[in-house]
Amino acid sequence: MRIAFVSPHSDPLAEPGEPDSGGQCVYERRLAATFGEARSDEVRVYTRGWGGKESRRTISAEAEALRIEAHGDEFIRKEDMAPVLPAFLESMWRRDGDWLDSAEVFHGHYWDGGAAALMASLRTGRPLVFTSHSLGREKRDRVPEDGTLKYALRIANEHRVMAAADRIIALTEMEKGILERRYHVDPEKVAVVPAGVDTDAYRPTGDTAALRGKLGLEADERLVFTTGRLDPRKGYDLFLDAIPEATRRLRERGLKARFLLPAGGDALDENERAVRERMDARIAEQGLEDRVILFPHLTLEELLVYYTAADLFVLPSPYEPFGLVAVEAMACGTPVLATRNGGPPEIIDAGSDGALMDPADAGEFGTVMADMLTDRGRLAAMGENARRKAREVFDWRAVAASIREVYGQALASAPT
């Protein structure tokens, strides 16, 4: 099967720390790679080129990324992508028209990819499959409009894409319910398929004792880790607000912890700088300099060591559609404390492999964090459960097989 992924803002081969890199990029790369490795499918991922990146790169045996020229070589935020889409589509066809004309399925990712994939579907008559990765109506409820997020445009186009799609992939049952309730989508055309993790790569690994020594941790000191791009929607400020309560409760029990948060890449854009400045201000205001460590960009090898060395991974987003980093941490044998808003309740079995909290409630957040960190034996048992679940439920090979079934359903029901 020839499968075209359409993803203007999200480069599947983006380097960590680049603008708009993150879980969606990983999802597209690993899904495309898994299809390609099976050699029964051919996948091309169409994304916008910028910053002088290579125009074509291999992802796996039968999967590659094509970076399409549209509106210059400067980075364009996903919120500003709408005017670029017609030129993006025309550039796709000028560059790769013969292959696109023979594609069997167009799979749009996020609303901008969905809109461009819809145009491609209309052009060819081939089925449209859509994965939102995040929903504007839900995001707006938790992260209000600040003049730059352009929710009205996003939500209007989400409705258009969902109405036209032959099949929609939701990452969780909760997302499926939101699609029906808030976007009026027929539940019969929604398939629930979780995101995945490469359990061959993400596993307990590395010299964790050396890392803990490098960070200056004492023998019994707890280590709490979070990672992701610098984005106001990731909840780092909420995490920092919870640390004083967690630290106070741990101190009462004769325990200490350090907290690792991302510092961002070498060249921060305006939005990333604003997030970093707010983080620095909170650290100073709350006197957390001796408890919080901001780490720079990590290689995959370093990331795996951090996941493994941590006693606890935290996902503090006020709303998280799925939470791929949580599944990565679980695959490395680390229990997860995550927001209860969005997809994490379907990933985490509270009390077995992690816990859930309201990240906006600093008292609850800090209390749950301290309670988890108190008993290292319980944390170790939860980590084993987390790793087992990652292997059994979230391995990419199982995810790809389920999504291929969705493509087959879309093809079978397509008009002829």
Automatic annotation (TrEMBL):
SUPFAM superfamilies: UDP-Glycosyltransferase/glycogen phosphorylase. Residues 22-200 form the Glycosyltransferase subfamily 4-like N-terminal domain. It holds the Pfam family Glyco_transf_4. One of its GO terms (molecular function) is glycosyltransferase activity. Residues 1-23 are annotated as: Disordered. The keyword Protease does not apply. Its EC number is 2.4.-.-. Keywords: Glycosyltransferase, Transferase. Residues 210-388 form the Glycosyl transferase family domain. InterPro entries: Glyco_trans_1, Glyco_trans_4-like_N. This is Glycosyltransferase. It comes from Thiohalorhabdus methylotrophus.
